[in-house]
Amino acid sequence: MKRLLLVNGPNLNRLGVREVNVYGKGTLATLETEMKQEAEKLGVELECFQSNHEGVLIDIIHEADDIYEGIILNPGAFTHYSYAIRDAIASISIPVIEVHISNIHQRESFRHESVTAAATTGQIVGFGFYGYKLALFALMEKLREA
Asked: What is the model's pTM?
């Protein structure tokens, strides 16, 4: 059975409370439950992880290379300035799909650039929680092609 990792970065533990007009009312727990159920339908195991700390996210990305077949990653605000997370993604051999709940290109100008995207297999933005499912489907397709 394929094993995948869902990684959520800073402030995503506040889903359902933080800026519900942007991120919706769904919680991180709801998102993780829905994603695990969707993965199960596809016959894959999905583990979920969240951290507000850059170094912890870098460590989990590095460790994932030896444990999982792919990563779905929402780096949160680190998207816009963390060259360290970008380099961590570039250093691993498994595919990474970057996902964002909101359309980062329609928000404040400082959110328009993703320094991490160039190191990923692809990026999905603006589809709410459904974007995570799209990332799962895209990741599964990428693994089938390999």
From this structure: 0.93
